[in-house]
Write a structure and sequence with these properties.
mainly alpha, 5% strand, three-stranded antiparallel beta sheet, 3 domains, 4 helices, Rubrerythrin, domain 2, globular, Ferritin, 176 residues
Length: 176
């Protein structure tokens, strides 16, 4: 009977940590978004405060992920990333798109379409990186450009316009 109590408590702890991880992750992203809004409004100190607190939330999420065993070596992490992207591409976003279509939510359909197109690219990037890591190598990676409107991801010199949303490439964010 004593062993059963310990097992059940472990399951409850894992569930609690999973929920805490999700909450801290969402808070991190929300505060980063709030920081961008504050920057656009010229509130540099408010933006900096949001970024600092977002980082603290990231620390919390990382600690929870570590306790849950969600962090592996690079190869395992790439596989996890690829699995997540493939789930989004093949199951999650197609289902969400159908719901938005049925409810005639044009903004949601656009947002889902943007994410779906980017996730397809992310999956391929993870697969390429995983293949390199399996050979004991690092990935060959040029500059990466991200469209700030839809998240379209491109390696190397980007096209003049985003092929997903049409924004000009001079607006893209570069990752060296």
């Amino acid at each position: 009977m004593e062993d059963l109590k310990v097992i059940n408590m472990g399951k409850m702890t894992d569930k609690s940590l999973e929920e805490a991880f999700a909450g801290e992750s969402k808070a991190h992203m929300k505060y980063m978004i709030f920081s961008e809004v504050a920057e656009r409004e010229g509130k540099e100190n408010v933006a900096r405060m949001f970024k600092a607190i977002a980082y603290a939330e990231q620390v919390h999420a990382t600690n929870h992920a570590r306790e849950l065993g969600k962090i592996g070596d690079t190869e395992e992490n790439l596989q996890t990333g690829m699995n997540g992207e493939n789930f989004e591409v093949h199951w999650m976003y197609p289902a969400y798109h159908e719901i938005a279509h049925l409810e005639e939510e044009e903004g949601a359909k656009r947002s889902i379409h943007y994410a779906l197109e980017a996730e397809k690219i992310h999956s391929m990037m993870y697969e390429k990186a995983k293949n390199a890591v399996e050979k004991g190598e690092d990935i060959e990676l040029d500059e990466v450009y991200i469209c700030p409107v839809c998240g379209y991801t491109h390696e190397g010199e980007p096209p003049k316009e985003c092929p997903v949303c049409g924004v000009t490439s001079d607006k893209f964010k570069m990752f060296e």
